[in-house]
Amino acid sequence: MQKGTGVFGKQYEYGYKNETHAPGSVVRVLFDEMIKLDVEVVDYLYSDYTDLSFRYKQGSRSVLEEIVDGLRSDTNSQTVDNIMSFCRNIVERCNTPSKDFLYGGTEEDVIKRATYWCTDVARVACVLFQIAGFPSRIIVTVNSNFAYCGHIVAEVYYDGKWCLTDPNMGIVFRHEDGTPASAWEVHNDYEIANKVYRKNDPDGLYGNSIFFPPGEQFESVAIVNYYANDYGKYNYTTSGTNDFYKKILQHSREKWSGGLRWVHGEELL
Q1: Helix runs in the chain, H state only
Q2: What does the pLDDT look like over 51-69, one tens digit per residue?
């Protein structure tokens, strides 16, 4: 079993250790605890790893409970879709100048301030799913063939199956027959994701899709549990953009002129 910040190789490990989230804060802990999804552990990760009997303690997150009450529907699948639409709205509402951008905080904080940062939006989705009664967990993805090609999404369990979601895009991954598609299935068949992204993002502007088909973002995958009831266990300190990420974001704003490449010497590690 491969666990921790090094599961995707030294270059990405360097990035996780220089995360712009505050040291010791919730996202840093989740990266430390993530388990790489591969053939050796897939049975464990899709059986005993995540507690399917988990029950959220009603009354502990009243603001989030009120939000979920407004998103519930007659069917599980529609409730999942509604939660995804809510998360997409968090991204669409974000107009914070880069100099004032914040990372981390509680899920309530993230919703209030709005953000496009996938690690924080994925946490919101994970907790909202659990308050709605669905087991869920955080999914970390990387295309290890390229520099800085990571994304954080979520997986939710409903109707007897795990289903991959992309909270930033408000997308639920389903097969053509409408049944949920898991992170493992997408990892093994990129075309599942390609079809979903093409349908929801016809202009092909999502993520790094100008360099590779969006489904290839799931070339490498890790899973980590994040339970809403563990609220008191984590540090929710907020932070600004650190120098490590300022340089990466600058290259991103320049649309990676010259191609995707490491900018902090990671290729020498």
Answers
A1: 10-17, 26-33, 42-45, 62-69, 76-92, 107-113, 118-131, 183-188, 190-200, 243-253
A2: 999 889 999 999 999 999 9
